[in-house]
Write a structure and sequence with these properties.
This is Imm40 family immunity protein. This protein is of the alpha+beta class and 113 residues long. The protein has one domain: Ribulose 1,5 Bisphosphate Carboxylase/Oxygenase (2-Layer Sandwich), CATH 3.30.190. It contains 3 helices and 5 strands, in the order H-E-E-H-E-E-H-E. The strands form 2 sheets. It has a 3-stranded antiparallel β-sheet. It has a two-stranded antiparallel ribbon with strand order 1-2. The N and C termini lie close together (11 Å). 29% of the residues are buried.
Length: 113
Amino acid sequence: MNNIVWSNKVDEILSNGISLKPIGVKNWALPQEEAIQALSQFIDLQIPILGGDVCEFVSGTIQYNYDNWYCDRLPNESHLDFVNRSIRKAREYIEHYNISEPNKIFFAFVPEV
């Protein structure tokens, strides 16, 4: 799959979320359940997740709250192994993130494109 098609597929998956354009970022942030569902789509497309950021609504504006995670490819790690490990790490982070107000917390992914 070429990078343009891959990038379009990533945009399709993420664009269901909250746009981060108001803060100058061409990305979207998804609520917890949708973020976990998006990870299933990334694994189907074999797109690794390099990391992600947690965003929240503060006074009606989406912004980063500076919580994040990352996943680097290991030396000699196959692409498929990296995809599986990076998505597993993202899923664990999102599932275990302490969310006191679900309608305020969102997750933004950094997929490898």
